[in-house]
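Run log, item B.
One chain of 304 residues. Sequence copied directly from the ordering sheet:
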Amino acid sequence: MAGCTLCPRSCGADRGGGQKGRCHVDGKLRVARAALHFWEEPCISGEKGSGAVFFSGCPLGCVYCQNQAISRGRAGTEITSERLARIFLKLEGQGAHNLNLVTAGHYVPQVLEALSLAKKDGFSLPVVWNSSGYETVRTLRMLDGFVDIYLPDLKYLDPGLAKQYSGAEDYPAVAKAALGEMVRQCPSPVFNEEGLMTSGVIARHLLLPGHVREAKRVASYLYETYGNQIYISLMNQYTPPAAFRVQREKASGSFPALLARKVTKREYDRLLDYAAQIGIENGFFQEGGTADESFIPEFDGTGV
């Protein structure tokens, strides 16, 4: 990890030498939680749960991030690749339907080592790559043959929004290319007899308050580009970070005012109506009060 270029930031940090990169972490593997997780799409979580491993750090840095404790590298326990392999095996032993690697792109070499070690000891779960979509094709190709299901976001098509909210004007171009590589590796959805996905791509879009038009553009792009080759997950679970709510109450601050509130039912209904109108059939939507901080897990080292 000397001169790190694993992510699109290509910051060149000597992470192997202890320097932190744009991902907020150095080269030492850090994990904040490893446990059964029940809040993914039904074909991922199933009845027994997805074996989710949450990694510390993130190169994207969205201002509204729901998991800032780990994305900014503040939470997490330092472990070895050998320990990570044992965690994978433990989750399989707990009955997980799959192994769900959450934001692991800046740890690809260690993850590949851990997967190789676990497979030598009989690990056989489908591997889910759960990411922001902000990844290089070069790094994704390192995962070819190791990942069975890709679960990326497509957050924006508007470079201006990507710059404002994630400090990454190149996000749309990068994420489009990344998604194309994911579909190349997993070109069609495959399900087992229990209705669980064993191979394929599910592209997610989180509807942000005040941005129905952008969400429609994303849904249209995904369907026009990939049709039924992928599943499209349209989410309404946006939860304003506490700092945003405080700033709104004070009627001051630099946070985008729109992001200080939840998505309204009308906004989400407009998006779902549009998805049905353009013909999306292979998709997921959310019901009820998903915009709640109780849906954000505790990053307290559980299972690590």
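Observations after the first pass:
- The chain has a mean pLDDT of 92.
- The longest helix spans residues 171-185.
Flagged for discussion on Thursday.
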